[in-house]
Amino acid sequence: MILPHSAATTTSPNSQPAAAHSASGFLPAVPLLALDRQYAVLRDEIRGALDRVCDSGKFVLGPDVHDLEAELARSLRVPHVISCASGSDALLLALMALDIKPGDEVILPSYTFFATASAVTRLGAVPIFADIDPITYLVDPADVKKKISTRTKAIVPVHLFGRTADMDAILPVAKAAGIPVVEDAAQSILSTWHGRCSGALGDVGCFSFYPTKNLGGVGDGGFLTTTRDDIAAKLKLLRVHGMEPRYYHQIVGINSRLDSLQAAVLRVKLPHLDAWTTSRQVNAARYQELFAEYDLAGHVAVPGDEPRGRHVWNQFVIRAPGGCRDALRKHLAASGVGTEIYYPVPLHLQQCFEYLGWQKGDLPHTELAADETLALPIFPELTEAEQRTVVGRIAEFFQAPQLMRKTEDSTRTHKPESVVEEPHFVRRMNAVGRADDVRC
Ligand SMILES: Cc1ncc(COP(=O)(O)O)c(C=O)c1O
Fold first, then answer.
1. Which value, to the nearest 10 degrees, does the dihedral of the CA atoms of residues 44, 46, 50, 53 take?
2. How far apart are CA 85 and CA 83, in angstroms?
3. Is the pLDDT at 411 greater than 90, yes or no?
4. What is the structure's pLDDT at 400?
5. What is the pLDDT of residue 399?
6. Between 94 and which of 131, 204, 242, 368 could a Cys-Cys bridge form, CB atoms 3.0 to 4.6 Å apart?
7. Residue 183: what are its φ and ψ, rounded to 5°?
8. How far apart are CA 121 and CA 208, in angstroms?
9. Within 6 Å (CB) of ligand 1, which residues are found?
10. Per-residue confidence (pLDDT) for residue 286, from 0 to 100
């Protein structure tokens, strides 16, 4: 049962505003993302790699890009990896490789980042939005099946938040209809499904190196995976204006090459990805324990694990039903806890897609998720004390005073000195991952 909450929930039980605690350092602030913690460990290696590229004078594609592609292919156990300039471009290139044309229909979820749909409309094709499963937030295979028509030329399941879509259900439906599957795996590098990596399940996989992703660069970047030799060959042409040999253009492509500087940094990070992923899994399990410990099940729904594969937890997204999500978010912000809403406006209701004719009420599970979900910090370097602060603040919002006391006690013993004792400007530096860094 979801219990009601009062309007006065931004004040703690002892009547002091939550922000006052935070400002006085009583409870440390917890950023949504702290990329500086990762950089602190790899700083020298990354700088060395950047120097090496600058000394070489090879800045676009080049040996580092080639080596990164080979290393990713090994890590993901997929025969072809083709890097490109962003995850958005990866989706566009995938649809171009599949020859998606104006008027073709492509089925995808509405509850995803914008790029999943804009890749379709940039080719003059028509996005057909499917609803989601309300528990996993992943595209509902039954709705996908219902929306297949003779015009459907691709299906794009999104492995949202680090969890693979239900490929047991989607792949047979696509196969029966003879429709290729493009996996949007931007948020789910190293996630698996029955032991196989996302990106190796459908016809093409699309990944992002955006800094907030589990493997993030120092700018934009992305890559594609495929098990199909024909698609791999076409993607390699499409990303360089369809040019082969130099200045001879076989097809019209785009300019979407990965910079050597990005590749060099990503090659430093890739060997750590498995351990970072495990840390995310540990953090997710700890949140699950803490939410149970603080008896918050009546107030928020906590995401579960994926029994059929590896969930890589790019985001830890809770659901706060009953219209309280925004007030909860405000309370957490006042307490110095970073959160984000992925995504507040479903794609079928975006202004730019009005011409497609979708209405409110068309995708009820999607629309409710957009109103009720909230992403909490889950990055690998997040400490147990910080997680206790996050869950304690949530308990505080729902007015569970005895639970809050427990949280404050334990937080005091676990206080991370680097956050609490340093001057305020350093503390603010720790909160890297401001809103403009974490939109995708
Ligand atoms: C699900 C999804 N698809 C596609 C993209 C686009 O990737 P990029 O930002 O690298 O263009 C993102 C986010 O960045 C994403 O989260």
1. 110
2. 7
3. no
4. 61
5. 83
6. 204
7. -85, 120
8. 20
9. 86-88, 112-113, 115-116, 158, 184, 186-187, 208, 210, 220, 222, 440
10. 98
Give the β-pairing of 80-84 and 222-226.
antiparallel
Q: Is the pTM of this model over 0.90?
A: no
Q: Is the pLDDT of residue 7 over 90?
A: no
Q: Is the pLDDT of residue 78 over 90?
A: yes
Contact 366, 111 (CB under 8 A): yes
Mutate to test the pocket of ligand 1, among 160, 187, 254 (most ligand atoms within 8 A of CB): 187
Looking at 3.10.320.10, 3.40.50.880, 3.40.640.10, 3.40.50.970, the CATH number of the domain 43-271 comes to: 3.40.640.10
Residue 412 pLDDT exceeds 50: no
Mutate to test the pocket of ligand 1, among 33, 88, 92, 137 (most ligand atoms within 8 A of CB): 88
| Per-residue confidence band for 28, with pLDDT thresholds at 50, 70 and 90 | confident
For residue 25, how far is its CA from the centre of ligand 1 (angstroms)? 35
How do the domains of the chain map onto residue ranges? 18-38+272-437, 43-271
Q: Tell me which CATH homologous superfamily contains domain 18-38+272-437.
A: Aspartate Aminotransferase, domain 1 (3.90.1150.10)
Please report, as a single letter, which amino acid is at residue 382.
L
**Cα of 406 vs its chain's centroid, Å:** 32
3-state secondary structure of 113: coil
Cα 434 to ligand 1 centre (Å): 17
Mean pLDDT of the chain: 88
